[in-house]
Design a protein that fits this description.
With 295 residues, this protein is of the alpha/beta class. It contains ten helices and seven strands. It has a seven-stranded mixed beta sheet, sandwiched between helices. Helix 2 packs across helix 10 and helix 8 packs antiparallel against helix 10.
Length: 295
Amino acid sequence: MKEAFYETPPFYMNYVKKLYSLKKRYPFLCLCEAGRSIQGKKIYSLFLGNINRPVLYAAAFHAQEWLTELLLVKFIDELCREFSKKGEICRALMNRGVIFVPCVNPDGVELVLSRGASAGKTAPCVNKISGGDFHNWQANIRGIDINHNFNAGHDILRKMEDAAGITAPAPRQFGGYYPNSESETRTMVHLCRRYNVSRVYAFHSQGEEIFYRYGSHVAAGAESMAGLLSKVSGYSLPVQSGLASHGGFKDWFILETGRPGFTIEIGRGKNPLPIGELSPIFARLYEMMILGLII
């Protein structure tokens, strides 16, 4: 039977209700506040298994890529069902945990879904940046692109943004005046450091691609892991270039920890991907997402 939550865009209150319903249904699932957005929305994290150098899955860094948020919640839902059966997945997570952050950028997602109505006190700034058009908005509520704001080649990225004419807060691709300037960015950095995360999977859309390098930096074992993920999903393994080559979450994670980090671009088309794509994308990626827990 289809569930209404997966049939509609994830407005924040519906998202929160869904997380608490999962927590109620599965008492072994730990629901926590990892941090707060610029507007004060809770950035939720969910923990499953033995939190010993856990794997971290995160999504919705970009506002128009809210289908990744639904994908991750659906994966948590299914994983908890399997975990409750006390079978292979349960045994696999006894010695290894997983952290989920389904929505890194709740202000941005709500902004595009509400077509600007959720801007609140930031409305003058948001309206100036957007011109009232939110079709291309990927940033947080301040016009900072979270996935350009991590401390990985930020100086290089700023020069590239300047050359592209992106010199101030914008709907997309402005990484801020200095790295880690945004509360959403700092939340993810703190989470990784606090729990000694072993590897990260950052979900974006679109392109059906997997990225595992940061420039010349390739974590030990990452290439073979990426090969397995690619084989199972059918996604390609290109090399990032241009404005996408610095400042990302997985870039920072690889640079700081030397551990594997992956960016997974789900689906094909124009963002936001149609909600009808959720089921086929999930069916295609479920095995890969399970594999990501255990490799």
